[in-house]
TrEMBL record:
It comes from Malaciobacter canalis. Residues 176-271 bind DNA. Residues 176-271 form the OmpR/PhoB-type domain. Pfam families: Response_reg (PF00072), Trans_reg_C (PF00486). This is DNA-binding response regulator.
Length: 272
């Protein structure tokens, strides 16, 4: 079986939706392709974490032929973490099962939490338990060995584009941004706190992500696809079950409607 994109976060249609829905700016497909090419032509440094050296060297050669730069090759979780701390690559391709006392999953989780560098898992395992554990490090793709060069290239490009989109405003977050919602609710994007009056509302990590994505452009609607890919990182975009459950439980916590459904499209905040 060829490489399976269990967690590939986006496709061309989604990229079109993301870009063309920002502030309702209408652009042509030609403009979109020019923007994508401009972004993807920038030098991209990749760290390969693989304890089978023959595979690692073969991947390094393939990636260099695609035009990427290799930040390095590491064979253990400890060395991978140290490499990222010192070199700050743009993306990490991580084998889940590494030799040593730390797994690739543990290394990826630490790298993501510390540096927010996108992770692509490369593994021989696709069982439910392994996939579930991998979610903790919020990978952008999950590729099954053996996989084609084209699959890796697509995973890298889409992961980088998605990462660039969701974190493009991170430098602005040093300024306090508080959004006034309906019924005296407020959402502090800087502190990631939902409150009513003097009382803060305890939210789960995914509930906070829900408010993060809706509050990025508070007056705009956000599509189901964008919300699902942002919160669940690679879940099937056609599976609405988890999102519906999240919304149901979130509404049960609140005594007022601070966001609303946009028919057959997505959700948006209800502003004061």
């Amino acid at each position: 079986m060829n490489c399976i994109h269990l967690l590939l976060l986006t496709n061309f249609k989604m990229i079109v939706s993301i870009i063309t829905n920002i502030n309702h700016i209408q652009i042509t497909i030609g403009d979109l392709m020019n923007k994508l090419m401009e972004f993807l032509q920038k030098t991209v440094e990749i760290l390969i974490v693989e304890d089978e050296m023959v595979l690692a060297i073969d991947m390094e050669s393939s990636l260099e032929e695609m035009g990427y730069e290799i930040s390095g090759i590491e064979s253990t979780a400890q060395d991978a973490i140290k490499h990222v701390n010192e070199n700050k690559p743009d993306i990490v391709i991580m084998d889940i099962n590494l030799k040593g006392y730390k797994s690739g999953l543990e290394a990826a989780k630490e790298i993501w939490q510390t540096h927010k560098i996108p992770i692509i898992f490369l593994t021989s395992y696709s069982d439910d338990l392994t996939v579930k554990k991998s979610m903790e490090s919020e990978p952008y793709a999950y590729l099954i060995k053996p996989c084609r060069e084209k699959d890796i290239d697509i995973a890298i490009k889409t992961a980088l584009h998605k990462h660039n989109y969701f974190f493009k405003n991170k430098n602005l977050m040093s300024e306090q941004i508080v959004i006034d919602l309906a019924q005296n609710y407020k959402y502090d994007r800087t502190k990631r706190v939902l409150s009513k009056g003097l009382n803060s509302i305890k939210l789960t990590g995914n509930e906070l992500k829900f408010f993060d994505i809706l509050s990025e452009n508070p007056k705009e609607s956000v599509s189901f696809e964008q919300i699902i890919s942002y919160i669940y990182r690679g879940e099937s975009l056609s599976d609405m079950g988890k999102l519906r459950t999240l919304v149901y439980r979130l509404r049960a916590k609140l005594d007022a409607e601070v966001f609303e459904n946009v028919y057959e499209f997505g959700y948006r905040l209800k502003l004061d």
